[in-house]
Amino acid sequence: MSAAHPSAPAGMPLARLDEGYPVLAALSPSGRRRLLEAARWMRVPGGTCLFDEHQACEGFPFVVDGSIRVVKSAPNGRELPLYRVGSGETCILSTSCLLGREDYRARGVTESDTVLMLLPQAVFEELLDERPFREFVFHLFAERIAGLMQLIEEVAFRRLDQRLAAQLLGKGRTLHRTHQQLADELGSVREIVSRLLKGFADQGLVRLGREQVEILDPAGLRRTASGEPARSTD
């Protein structure tokens, strides 16, 4: 990780940290003091690579503002999005790297301007002795594992057209996404996603525009997402 600052950025009160991470209020006075004394603050521009494969983990991140996109990259340049980390959440890769003392096996990139508080490994290990912090870490760890298992099921057992249809749903009538962005989110390539979107448009499910997709038939997309055959228009 980079762009570290030794103290909290101006205009970023500790109340913002406590709001996102209520567990910090449950720490012992000595534990909280140790955390705040050892923590490093980072203000990172959007699009910054915070960590990459084969890099050592420098600490346990608390996301105070912004978000981080964690992806697995292939040698051909394709990426599979694994999860996002927002305020109040934690990074399962950072946790596993600290617990196992191993390097990262994926890449983390900020999606927007992001403020982090980074807890050094030694203090992270000390705080695991406190029950509230330990339960917080392992609860979020379990949630992330469940999310990754769902992702594995999606990739292994659902066709790409089903996954794309599901990706388009639940975000309003119009999605402001490029075909490349949709492909990145699905871990696919733009050409395949563009071909599928054209097929959806030919079926009357969507209308394609410049960097946007307008949903015309949500029920039809839901049928596609569930794997049901398209209804005949005859």
Structural class: alpha+beta
- As for the CATH topology of the largest domain, it is Jelly Rolls
Top-tier CATH class of the largest domain: Mainly Beta
Low-pLDDT runs of 5+ residues are: 2-7
Map the helices and strands:
Blueprint lengths: L3 E2 L8 H7 L8 H10 L1 E5 L4 E3 L8 E6 L2 E6 L5 E7 L6 H9 L6 E4 L3 E6 L1 H7 L3 H27 L2 H9 L5 E2 L3 H8 L3 H13 L3 E4 L2 E4 L2 H9 L8
Antiparallel strand pairs: 1-2, 2-8, 3-7, 4-8, 5-6, 5-7, 9-11, 10-11
InterPro entries: cNMP-bd_dom, cNMP-bd_dom_sf, Env_Response_Regulators, HTH_CRP, RmlC-like_jellyroll, WH-like_DNA-bd_sf, WH_DNA-bd_sf
Pfam family, one: cNMP_binding
GO molecular function, one term: DNA-binding transcription factor activity
State the gist of this model.
The protein is α+β, with helices and mostly antiparallel strands. It has helices at residues 14-20, 29-38, 92-100, 121-127, 131-157, 160-168, 179-186, 190-202, 218-226, and strands at 4-5, 40-44, 49-51, 60-65, 68-73, 79-85, 107-110, 114-119, 174-175, 206-209, 212-215.
Explain what this protein looks like in three dimensions:
By secondary structure, the chain is of the alpha+beta class. The protein folds into two domains: 4-156, Jelly Rolls (Sandwich), CATH 2.60.120; 159-226, Orthogonal Bundle (Arc Repressor Mutant, subunit A). The protein is 42% helix and 21% strand. The chain has helices at 14-20, 29-38, 92-100, 121-127, 131-157, 160-168, 179-186, 190-202, 218-226; strands spanning 4-5, 40-44, 49-51, 60-65, 68-73, 79-85, 107-110, 114-119, 174-175, 206-209, 212-215. α2 packs antiparallel against α4 (121-127). The N and C termini lie far apart (58 Å). This is Transcriptional regulator, Crp/Fnr family. Residues 158-219 form the HTH crp-type domain. InterPro entries: cNMP-bd_dom, cNMP-bd_dom_sf, Env_Response_Regulators, HTH_CRP, RmlC-like_jellyroll, WH-like_DNA-bd_sf, WH_DNA-bd_sf.
